[in-house]
Amino acid sequence: MTDQDQRRSRLALNQATTRDLNVEQVIRCCAEAGVEGIGLWRDRVEDAGADRTARLIRQAGLTVTSLCRGGFFTSASASGRAAAIADNRRAIEQAARVGAPVLALVCGGLPAGTRDLDAARAMVTDGIAALADDAVSHGVRLAIEPLHPMFCADRSVVSTASQALAIAEQFPAASVGLMLDAYHVWWDPEIEATVRRAGRRIFGFQLADWVLPLPADVLLGRGHLGDGCIDFRRLDRAVRDAGYDGWTEVEIFNRAIWAAPAARTVRTVVDTYRRHVVLPAEHGQPRASGAGLTVLPEPS
Question: What does CATH list as the number for 3-294?
Answer without folding.
Answer: 3.20.20.150
